[in-house]
Amino acid sequence: MPILQIKEIIDLLGLDDIKCRIGRYESDIPQKYKPYFEKWLGNRDGFIRMLSGSIDYVGSEDVVRMGPFYNIYCLVQNQNLIENDQNHQDLLNSNLYYSLTEGRVNEAGWSGSILASRLTKDQRIMDFLFQALKSEVTRTVSIRVVNMACLIECRIWHPREFVFLYEFLDNIAMNIQEMLSELHFGEKMKR
């Protein structure tokens, strides 16, 4: 399977004035995040360090199952998130639902969490869904909490497909950041 052309993605995003560069694992990832992010960013294709927008990092993994494709991992970093915390899952884990008839979108939205309700109310996100759900890459988007981040995952076959989805994915990330900024995760208390 060919290596995902990270440089091509960066160049294409640059045409839209989106600032990013090839990531350097040793210097771009804070030490406390490295053990958690290696799974998403430590693959052979490298990763992208986003310098603008709401996504922090974009990693990839090639998959050869029913034809070759790439899993794309967009991380929104947050030190308070824990993958196995049911409350965090109820807050963030979101799946896309939709129905199509003869290539026309009948309904679409998000389910599974508080974030899902927020995304379904976001007009920019819903407008994109109703226009782009015919594209298979759009239908592969999902969101879940992982340790120290929220992961927005999708599947692409070509770098241009990620660029096609980028604004949509970044709007999701912005909703995640806004929602997390409104929450109080608790504090250490002395007894």
Structure description:
By secondary structure, the chain is α+β, with helices and mostly antiparallel strands. The chain has one domain. The protein has helices at about 5-15, 25-30, 35-40, 85-90, 115-120, 125-130, 135-140, 160-180; strands at about 20, 45-50, 55-65, 70-75, 95-100, 105-110, 140-145, 150-155. It has an eight-stranded antiparallel beta sheet with strand order 1-2-3-4-8-7-5-6, sandwiched between helices. Strand 7 and strand 8 (about 150-155) form a beta hairpin. The radius of gyration is 17 Å and the shape is globular. The N and C termini lie far apart (about 55 Å). The model has no long low-confidence stretch (mean pLDDT about 90).
Percentage of residues assigned to helices: 25-40%
Biggest beta sheet summary: 8 strands, antiparallel
Count of domain modules? 1
Order of helices and strands: HEHHEEEHEEHHHEEH
Q: Report the uncertain regions.
A: none
Beta-strand fraction estimate? 25-35%
Keywords:
alpha+beta, single chain, 191 residues
Task: Give a short overview.
This protein has helices spanning 6-15, 25-28, 34-41, 86-92, 114-121, 123-132, 136-139, 159-181, and strands at 20-22, 47-50, 57-64, 68-77, 94-101, 104-111, 142-146, 149-156. It has 191 residues and is α+β, with helices and mostly antiparallel strands.
SSE arrangement:
Blueprint lengths: L5 H10 L4 E3 L2 H4 L5 H8 L5 E4 L6 E8 L3 E10 L8 H7 L1 E8 L2 E8 L2 H8 L1 H10 L3 H4 L2 E5 L2 E8 L2 H23 L10
Antiparallel strand pairs: 1-2, 2-3, 3-4, 4-8, 5-6, 5-7, 7-8
Helix pairs in contact: 1-8
